[in-house]
Every structure is written in C-alpha cells, then in structure tokens.
Design brief:
Blueprint (H helix, E strand, L loop, with lengths): L1 E5 L16 H8 L1 H16 L3 E5 L10 H16 L3 E5 L19 E3 L5 E6 L5 E6 L24 E7 L15 H5 L5 E5 L5 E4 L3 E4 L15 E8 L2 E8 L3 E9 L4 H12 L5 E9 L3 H8 L2 H9 L6 E9 L9 H14 L2 H6 L8 H8 L1 H24 L3
Helix pairs in contact: 2-3, 6-11
This protein binds manganese (II) ion.
C-alpha cells in the first residue's frame, strides 16, 4: 500500500519577512503554496496512492479567504476524480468552531471531528487500514489527546495515527502536548504528525514524525519542503521525502574584494543557473569598507532589488556584511568582556524589560522569542563594531 502524508499547507498565508517585493514576484509568492499542493496531487495521481492524509493547518486561519478555499477544494476534486480518498484533521490555525463555515468538500474527503474517531478503508491490494485522528475546535488544546486514541486495531493490516501537536507536558503546552512514549504505547504502524514546520523524525520504525510544511513561508523555514510518500515494505511503512515547494529560502555566502559598483554584477552572475526559485539571504565577506557601509545602510540591498529581473530564478531579500579580517589587536581579555557583555545585553530578560511584556500579538512574540532573532541582533552589532574598527584603521589624518 501507498499513501501520502502531508501537513501544514497553511493555504492563504502570505510570505513573511520580505521588506520589499517587486510586482513580478508577488504573484509567484501568492501562488507558491497552491503550486506545491498541485504538485503533490499530480504525484498522488501518477503514483496511484491509496489515500492522502493531511495532518492539520491546511488553511492558515479558521476563516480562510475564497482563494484559499478554492485552492484546496479544486485540488481535492482532482483527487476525487482519481478516486483517491483524503483524510483531514484541522489544527490550531484552521481549527473549526463552526462546521457550517467550511467550504463544501468533495465526497472523497473525510474530516475528523473534535473527538478521536477511527476510519477504516481497504486499499487497491485489499489491505485493510485504520486511521485514527481528531480536529482542533479551538486554538489551544492543553491536554494530551493521545489518551483518547484506541490501541492498535489488530484486525486490520495497518493502523495510522493522525495528530496535530507538539511534544510537551500536559497542561503546559498549548498544542495537544504529548510524549513520544505515549505514542509508542499505542503500537501503531505510523504516526503522521503535523504542526512542526521542520521535517522531523521522532522514531524511525514504526515511523513517528513530522513531514514539515509544504512551502516555507518565512526566512526561518529554510531548505526543501514537501511531503512524505509512504510505502509498505514487508511489515513496515517507510516514508520518503519528496520536495514540491516551488520557492526555497536559502542562505548564500559570497566572498568578494570588488568595488561597490561591481559587487551586484558579480553576485548576480553566480546565481543565474538556479533551477528552482530561491529567496536568498546573502552574506557577503569583504574588507571593502564602502561595501560594508552600503550593506549596513541597505543601499546594496536596494541595488540588488533594482537589478532583479522577472526572468530571475532568485531574489535577494536580505544582505548582511562580514569583514574577512578579525578585529585586530584586541587582547584576549577583551574577548571575555565582550562575551560577558553580549550575554548580559542580548537575553530574554532584557527584551522583557524593553517592553516585550506588553506585546500580545502571538506572531511578534514568536519572532522575538526565537533564538535566531537574538543571534541576528548579536551579529549585526558585531559587524557594526568591526566596520567601525576597520574604518578607524584605514583612517589617515
Ligand atoms: Mn499548527
């Protein structure tokens, strides 16, 4: 038997973190998730899978707009035409507090209610499958839902668990916190997890893990994104990752000694041969102080954006500068003080004091609580210090 495990499509979610977007890029971004889902459905039809499971957050919100609804319904209809069944649970983003408000899904779709229920089906090869799952009907679930799941049904060939949530302690986490042990104790053949956007395996066999999001929607969701094609091999269900995201977030490092007016051309030439579209955070290593300054004041980013062409297979959305030479002549003791100061300044407590306590918007909070935000701040300060240091050394009275 063969099925597809995907999750966190987040249809209707705009790309985040792009400070400037040329008009030609807008539609490409806008349709990226739909393109990814379309590719998944193409693959499902070609591979003639027995069914597809979507592990929650198919929509980005509980009130998806018309385009997001149509994008999903149209793709589900293509699966219906190919007689492929789809099992859907709703997650913390697309939780359903009013089932009337959902679009009309084709008949091949089974939606799981708030209570854990089990569906059965028979595959083309006459294997029997049980699928157990539940949907969110509110944004947060602080209880462990695994306890509601039945033990493996020994009368079927395969038992699959469909679960949207995160590892954690009951009562502490907001996303149906569970322990790996609790999942293991159900003795299922496969746990199709959703919620975590990074592809992650909690257990190899029987498989327990996240397929990750299908399309990276901000700079933290780097690397290839897609779904798992799951196939039975003797007594095991084995997932194989298949990338389908048409746009990938990447970091590229470039070393250059060119003058400012040559840097844009040099860098662009390096990226012309990309096959799938990339959103690039560019890290430039250089000792040219004019280039480093142009990076700091965003002048270089503006030049890259101005040079971008609709035929490009990349877009540089961020540029950071890093001097090749180390800060010269700072004694070791200064390093110690530097590290200690950094630790004292760039920490959560300081952010709280600076006003994070007053922030109620979940997305903004997530951004500041993300470890990479603090890392970015630290490196920006360090670069700034190094640039001024090099500036001082080059200075001739
Ligand atoms: Mn989620």
């Amino acid at each position: 038997m063969k099925f597809i495990h995907a999750g966190d499509l987040h249809l209707g979610n705009p790309f985040g973190g792009l400070s400037i977007t040329p008009s030609w890029l807008k539609e490409k971004l806008h349709s990226a998730t739909q393109v990814a889902v379309h590719r998944l459905v193409d693959d499902a039809i070609v591979a003639a899978v027995d069914f597809v499971v979507l592990a929650g957050d198919s929509f980005n919100t509980t009130t998806p707009d018309a385009r997001a609804q149509l994008d999903l319904v149209n793709e589900l209809q293509r699966l219906a035409d190919a007689k492929i069944h789809v099992y859907i649970i709703f997650g913390n983003h697309d939780y359903v507090n009013n089932w009337q408000r959902l679009p009309t899904f084709p008949d091949n779709v089974t939606l799981f209610p708030a209570e854990v229920t089990t569906q059965q089906l028979q595959t083309a090869n006459h294997e029997t499958v049980a699928i157990s799952g539940f949907s969110y009907t509110q944004r947060h679930i602080s209880t462990n839902q695994v306890t509601q799941f039945p033990m493996k049904d020994t009368s079927v060939d395969w038992h699959i668990g469909l679960y949207h949530g995160a590892l954690g302690e009951a009562g502490v986490g907001d996303y149906a916190p569970f322990s790996l042990q609790a999942l293991q104790q159900k003795h299922y053949d496969y746990w199709a997890l959703g919620h975590i956007h990074v592809r992650e395996t909690l257990q190899e066999q029987p498989f327990i893990g996240y397929s990750g999001s299908i399309q990276g929607l901000d700079k933290t969701e780097t690397g290839s994104k897609g779904y798992y094609m799951v196939e039975s091999h003797s007594q095991q269900l084995v997932p194989t990752f298949t990338p389908v995201a048409p746009i990938t977030w990447v970091t590229e490092k470039v070393q250059t000694d060119r003058d400012l007016h040559m840097v844009v051309q040099q860098v662009r030439e390096q990226f012309v041969l990309k096959e799938e579209f990339e959103l690039i955070a560019l890290q430039i290593e250089t000792d040219q102080t004019t280039v480093l300054s142009a990076i700091t004041n965003q002048q270089l980013l503006a030049q890259f954006v101005a040079a971008a062409q609709p035929s490009d297979m990349f877009f540089i959305y961020d540029v950071t500068g890093h001097p090749k030479q180390k800060i010269a002549g700072l004694p070791a003791v200064a390093d110690q003080y530097w590290s200690a100061t950094v630790a004292n300044v760039f920490n959560l407590e300081q952010l709280q004091k600076l006003g994070l306590k007053q922030v109620t918007d979940g997305d903004v909070l997530d951004y500041f609580l993300d470890a990479s935000t603090l890392t970015d701040l630290k490196s920006a300060v360090q670069t700034q210090l190094q640039v001024s240091q090099i500036g001082d050394e080059n200075h001739v009275d």
